[in-house]
Design a protein that fits this description.
- It is a single chain.
- The protein is mainly alpha-helical and about 150 residues long.
- Helix content is about 45%, strand content about 10%.
- It has helices spanning about 1-20, 50-55, 60-95, 95-100, 105-110; strands at about 25, 35-40, 45-50.
- A 3-stranded antiparallel sheet has the order 1-2-3.
- The longest helix is centred in the middle third of the chain and has 36 residues, at about 60-95.
- It starts with a helix and ends in a 38-residue tail after the last helix.
Length: about 150
């Protein structure tokens, strides 16, 4: 059991590196926005298509940014969970250190703290709805909200 614990300790050191290297992308369904998030789901880069301001409204673009950020966060959580899975699976099969030594820290709690549960407040993969008040050009496409404002 001590050998398994030492092996897991070595794996944890590598896990920190692996988690630190995670960068996950998420796209909006309209392809106007791409967000890159770190392992914690925090956006670290946002890309907006050059013509997004002409093909969308401010509210529509805001919905695209939120959708892409949520997709990136979900992808990051999935990658992080996959990186942690071998260690948490091995830890789950062993008796907890706190069960063997009174007063010792719970290794199960430590392992579980690496990846928080999926945030149920993050919506699924639905497309953002376009506001009803979108002005349309003669060809039916959203009118540029920048037109006549510059």
């Amino acid at each position: 059991m001590l050998a398994a614990f030492e092996d897991q300790t070595r794996q944890l050191a590598g896990l920190r590196e692996s988690l630190g290297a995670i960068e996950a992308e998420g796209w909006s369904t309209d392809r106007h926005v791409r967000v890159t998030a770190n392992a914690g789901g925090i956006p670290i880069d946002v890309w907006i298509a050059d013509d997004a301001f002409h093909r969308s409204t401010p509210r529509g673009l805001a919905a695209s940014v939120a959708e892409a950020a949520q997709a990136a966060a979900r992808n990051a959580q999935q990658q992080a969970a996959a990186a942690v899975a071998p260690i948490t699976d091995a830890a789950g099969a062993m008796p907890d250190l706190s069960e063997l030594t009174p007063g010792a820290p719970s290794l199960h709690e430590i392992f579980d703290s690496f990846i928080p549960p999926l945030d149920e407040r993050v919506p699924g993969q639905g497309a953002p709805t376009e506001p009803n008040d979108v002005a349309r050009d003669d060809d039916g496409r959203p009118a540029s909200w920048l037109k006549d404002r510059w």
